[in-house]
Structures are given as C-alpha cells and as structure tokens.
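User: I'm new to structure prediction. If I give you an amino acid sequence, what do you actually give back? Let's try with this one:
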Amino acid sequence: MPLRQDEVPQLTDATAQEPRRRVVYDVTRLVTRALNPAPNGIDRVDFALARHFLERREEERGALVCTAIGPRLADPAKALKTIESVEAHWREESDAQEDSVYRAAVASLRAQGGDANVSARARKAPSFAALSRNVEALRRWAPHLGRPLRTLPQGVVYFNATLFLIDRPWYVGWLASRPDVAPVFFIHDLLPIDAPEFFRSREALLHPARMRHVCRYGAGAVVASKSVARRLMQFAADNGRHDFPICVAPLPAAPVFSKSVAAPAELDGLSYFVVCGTIEPRKNHILLINVWRELAREAKPPKLVIVGKRGWLNAPVVDALEGDDALRPHVVEAGGLSTPGLRRLLAGARALLTPSLGEGFGLPVVEALAAGTPVIVSDIEAFREIGGAAPDYLDPLDGSGWLQAVRDFSAPQSPRRDAALLRLKQWSGADAGGYFATIDDFLARLPRRA
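Assistant: Good question. You get back a string of structure tokens that encode the predicted 3D arrangement of the chain. For your 450 residues, that looks like this:
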C-alpha cells in the first residue's frame, strides 16, 4: 500500500527559503575507507552527503571524527581534502580503461574455454602509492583533530549517515549534554533486526542498540524509501517516539550513470549479465550460481560478472567460485571495480540481475536503470517502489524462473529484453539537486532546541 504523506511525521511550519543551518557531518567511517579498493553502496551515500555538507560556506559547515580520546571536532576543509584523497583512491573520476579490474574482467569475458580461468578472478589489490597518499593525508590532518565538542555553536545539526559507532554509549553520550544540537541520522534499513540470519551474529546485537540510540537522541531521520520509513515509524513508536520526524528522500544515481555511453567496442558481441553487491547471504548470489551451473551445460552460455567484494557467511558461493571447474569459465568475479568500470560494463550487459532477499533501497538497480540497462530483480517492496514498471520482477526463490529469464534476455533478438527496454524509457529516478534540496529543507524545519 502506498505511504500517504500524513503517515510519516513531517515538519511543515517553515519554508524552504529559511537559511541553511550549520551541519556538523560525522566523517569517521568515511576516512577509514582508504584501505578499500572501491566504494560500496553505503560509501557512495556517505561520500555524496559529506561533499554536500562540507562544501558549504564556512559558517554552514563542520566536521566530527572519532579520535583516541573520543569524538572531536575537525577542520572541515581538511576533512574534505582527506575524503577527496579517498575518492581519488577509488578512481571515481578515472577512465574505465585505466582500471586494471575492468581490463581483467573484459579479458575474462572475451576468453574462451579454459583460457577464462586465467583472469576470471579479477580483484583490485590496494595500490601502495595510493595508500601512501591517503596515509600521508591522514597524518597531515591529524594535528587538526581535537577541538572539544563543547565549542560547537548553539543549535547546529549533527548528521551521521552510516550509524558507525552509534551503538557505543561513549560515542553518543555527548548528545545528552548538548540538547540544543539536533542529531539527524540516515537510516539505510532495519534488516539486521528483522532478518538477523543474513548478518554476522554481532549485528543482531549492535543494530538494535544503534536504533535505540537513534530514537533516544535523534531529532529526525532521513531514509531512502517509504518501506524503510514505515518500519522506522514502527520501531520508533515501540521505543517511545510516536512523533519521530522522517524525511523520505529516494537516492539518485551518480551522474556518471546518466551519461550516454555507447556499447563499448571491447564488449561487442559478448553476452553477459552483471550482479552488483557484496557477496553475502541477503544478496542471494547462490541462486545465480545455481542458474549458471545449469547454463554451463549448454553450448555458448552467457557469462556472469559479479561486482563486489566478498562479505560474510558466503562459503557456498566462494566454494563454487573457487572449486567448480565447470562453472569457472562462465563467471567473472570483479572485486574492486571502479565506478567508471561498472558504468562501462552496464552499457554492454544484457541486464543487471538483483535477486536480493531483502533491501532498504537498492542503489545498483537505480544506477542500472539510469544507465539504460534492463534489470531483473526480486519482487520485493523496495524494488517495486524504486523501479515501478521498468524491471522484470521474479520471486527470489524461483530458480527456474530466473534461469528462463536469463535464457530469454540472452537471446540475440530477445522480445522479452526489447519489452524491458521500452518500459525503461518511461522510468525516471530522483535527481541529485532535488535530493539534497529535500534534505536541506527537512533540516531547516527541525525545531531549534535550547
């Protein structure tokens, strides 16, 4: 059932023309990502919001980071430079052809038979030079950490986009002594509470603690979908916050995905599909592994590119990737792929496959739709909300249905894929300008507390 506007507590007694409030952005998690070769979905959201808030005028911005002596204020300009160093390490603005993982993935897609084994496990190792630059940036930044939180001006907004360390009382305790500060949290989902079997056992303890702190201290929350808003409303009410303000702001795709990209010449004539996400149970990679085991029995089957790092509770998938010789020539594991590399792969793919068992949003789906790539997704609430009529929807447990869909979409003249491309032309997603304006307006309307 669609969420009516009056079902989520909103703030409507101000206008968008009100001056922007100073936002102190928590950069703690983001500055720890220098060792990761590529961003995941949470990283993309964190970085986009950090840039938005830290590029403001001096009187409108601030930064908070965890230090050895707890959370402290940091110089926002230096925080931004450090974050940009991490972005450079991720090669967000590079050409796909400069990405060794992309080149290795293409080589695997083009390889025939046993030759595919040579490079079918393309994974990006951290570059010593890039890591050295990031460590140096952190070293230069470190002397500027340490201003106590009591020096914050009255009435600022504290924004945390990842809930990193929010389960720790010592990290959030300062909020109790500063009731004038308006804490706002981005809530990706409540799945570790609702489906703990998909996560490390520790998450079943940590996420409830995070969310209880959100309800205790939060002045409001930002979510990406109405389905998460409904679940958050219920959790907040169960924890005594029946009027908890929630801003629903669907995530936009990064601009690179909306740029027109012709099918790359190096991928011409290749039949392949892409799945994008950390290899962990909720993403349901095992269904696709079983589909490709069946396809491997056929003459000239399409290939599958798995974009994402190895996560947790993934032994069946990893065992198949490393030990199934019949499967190996047909599946490419592209860990550490850059964003430009992903965009280029999507340009030539038959479809993005997303058989997730649960999602709070689904950024790869939005990215593929923005890129003009057909998508085949699980028939779950979040995907219905963001995809509308554009995707092909399948039960995430219907292995034979997914097998048939892959066969249909891989056909050279595929009526099913052509129909998906026609539907895709009617799809439109959120734009970055509107996304940030929605959040800024929400923050401006938050009541100022003494």
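You can read the tokens as a compact description of the fold. Here is one thing that stands out. Residues 96-125+254-424 form a domain with the Rossmann fold fold (CATH 3.40.50.2000).
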